[in-house]
Every structure is written in C-alpha cells, then in structure tokens.
Write a structure and sequence with these properties.
Length: 374
C-alpha cells in the first residue's frame, strides 16, 4: 500500500519561459516576483517582467532573498506584499528564492507570521494537513538551477537563528512551474555541481526511505542515473543544452520522489551544518554523504548495491564509487577543509535535534558528523 501525489502542472522544455505570460494570466493581474539580487540574473528578471507586462500583469519585484533564507527575509517579503497586494507569487531562481516565495504566499493575509505555529504544526511531509487560511496565494515557479526540486515539493526550508527548519503543507506545492533548461546554461560550474548533487541526494534519500513506493523509486532511480551520467559532462561543457536538459529532468523527478517518500539522515544533518556555518546546502550534503554511506552500508545493503551499479555496473560497494564521483565533480571536501571551526563543530554535536531524528541513533549520527569533519 502506498500513496503518490503530485499536483504541480509542469511545463518543461527549451524556451518554455516564453509561455509564462499565458500561464500566469490564469492566476490574476498582479504579481509579486521573488528573487535574489544577483547581478548576472538581472537580464532574466527584466525579460520575465516584460513577458508578464505584455499580458497586462503588473509586477512588484522583491529581490532581497539570500542563500539559506531567514525568517527576517521572509518577513521583509511579507511586508512588501502587504504594501503591494498581489493575486499570485512568482519565484524565480533556486531553492532559496522558491522557499521564500512559498512562505510569503502561504502566509498572505495574516497579521503577522507565527513561525512557532508553522514549524510545530506542519512538521511532517506525510500529513494531508487541512487548509491554513483562505487568503493563501497561488505560487508559480521558474527554476534557474537543477537541484532544488522545490518547484514540485510541499516543503519550505527557512533559517531561524542557528537552525534551518522546515514546514510542510499541500498548499506549498506550486500551481505551475516552467522548467526551461536554457536558463541553466549560464549557471557557474561550482553551483552546477552543488545543485546537481543536491538533486542526487533527493533521489537517493527518497529511494532508501521506508516510505518509498514503486512509483517514487522509479523517479529516484531514473534521476540518479541521469545525474551520474550527465553532471560531469555538464561541468566540462556548461553550454551543452542536452546535458542541461537531462539534469533539469533529473531535478524534477528527484523532487517528485522526495515529496512523496521523504529524506534520510543526510538532509537534516546538512541542515544542522548549514544553520550553524551557512555553507551552501549542496556542499553540506556532499560533506556528510560519504560518512553516511560508510556508516549505514549494512542497513541498506540491497539499495546501496543497486545505486553502486548506477555509477559502475561492476561495482560491489557504493562508498568508493561515490567518493570518486564527488572528487570528479569537485565536491570531495571535509568540514575542516571548508574552514569550519572546532567551536562550530562542537555546536553541531550538541544540537538537540540529533535526539529526535528517526534516521539513526544519536551515536550513529554523531559519528557521521565526526567522520565528516576531518
């Protein structure tokens, strides 16, 4: 017995961004566009505003998103929306922009954002929660990376202090997303590697999760295969649209699997790391993954062997081929290599979340972190 749910309408393919105006006008005539302030993306933002205005849609641009978005950033966007009411929210960018936009759209119409309520009430990806309010806004998404998967998930990850926290709700699924691989052609190599590996972990963790189903595992396996075969090529030929297309497809498949099956230990561990050190999410995942695979090899022997064969059909163990892949894509580093201090590392080991994660005992999870440090 299993369930599988994916309500987002997906518009996929080369130059599909040109359809944005036609898609967006179904949701109203006033848009709040949520982005980072990144200079290289300014031409894209201008293009999107032009496409929307051509359909008679006015645009308010909130461009204050930063990596690992905080509650303060969301509240700034929430305030902007109060000043400039909109009919829908459009996220343009990677996971940070999408998660910020989700939070703003979800809380529209409230007097203020009750973060304690959101994080404590909507804490499970497996619950079909009732409606939060009747003032939530529709969300549209235009990803510019192939890694977040957030365009097809019901989760939003927001930092509060030294914690990266997640809340889940069916209303956080975007109404529609436009996945145009041409938008990824200018993604820098390191960002390509980090987001690509992020997508791999979505597929991997959902594949081994106890909530995995035949449907989600088909998504997971195909996504991992596409990433293993195309990510190194995309790093060597970043302007190759075919490689970018395959990675964009993998990202979406992995996101679908994650939304239905959930993650495993590497994701919450990487969020502990990210909340304390502010390392990019994909980099934090790359740090903990080898240690996780080494620690859990006897717990998931069949799944690990299957994944090892994706890297090398003759492989008998996952750990060495995974480490080789991380080295090939430039992400084979330890926390100490990345400048993480002993004080920050001690804070990770003392994190109370380690007592409540369902993916291993505290000693097991602490050992994964220790093996990721040096």
């Amino acid at each position: 017995m299993f369930q599988y749910y994916q309500p987002t309408q997906i518009y996929f393919g080369e130059n599909r961004l040109n359809d944005l105006g036609m898609i967006a006008e179904r949701y109203g005539k006033r848009c709040l566009m949520v982005t980072t302030p990144d200079e290289p993306l300014q031409p894209l933002y201008a293009r999107i505003i032009t496409l929307l205005q051509a359909q008679g849609i006015s645009v308010t641009h909130f461009d204050e998103v930063q990596p690992n978005p905080t509650v303060e950033i969301v509240e700034a966007g929430f305030a902007r929306l109060k000043q400039h009411p909109a009919d829908f929210v459009l996220a343009v960018g990677g996971g940070s922009s999408i998660d910020t936009a989700k939070s703003i759209a979800f809380t529209n119409g409230q007097e203020q954002i009750d973060w304690d309520f959101l994080f404590q009430t909507y804490h499970s990806p497996y619950e079909n929660y009732p409606a939060y309010s009747d003032t939530m806004l529709p969300l549209l998404v235009v990803p510019t990376t192939s890694g977040t998967g957030s365009q097809v998930t019901q989760a939003a990850v927001i930092s509060r202090g030294a914690e990266k926290l997640t809340f889940y709700h069916p209303a956080l699924f975007s109404k529609a997303c436009i996945i145009d691989p041409t938008l990824m052609l200018t993604l820098p190599p390191r960002m390509t590697a980090m987001t690509g590996f992020d997508a791999f972990t979505h597929a991997f963790e959902s594949y081994i999760n106890s909530h995995a189903s035949p449907y989600s595992q088909m998504d997971s396996l195909r996504a991992m295969e596409l990433i293993v075969h195309n990510l190194p090529k995309a790093l060597k030929e970043p302007q190759n649209l075919e490689y970018r297309t395959q990675l964009a497809l993998a990202d979406t498949l992995a996101g679908r699997a994650l939304s239905n099956s959930g993650a495993a230990a590497p994701h919450p561990l990487s969020e502990i790391i990210g909340g304390i050190t502010h390392l990019p999410h994909g980099q934090a995942l790359a740090v903990v993954f080898p240690a996780f695979v080494a620690q859990m090899s006897t717990k998931y022997p069949e799944q690990f062997t299957t994944v090892a064969h994706i890297f090398d059909r003759n492989a008998t163990e996952l750990y060495p081929v995974l480490c080789s892949f991380l080295q090939e894509i430039g992400l084979s580093q330890k926390l100490q290599d990345l400048g993480v201090s002993e004080e920050d590392f001690r804070q990770m080991l003392e994190c109370p979340v380690l007592d409540f994660l369902p993916f291993g005992t505290r000693p097991e999870l602490e050992q994964i972190l220790k093996d990721s440090y040096v």
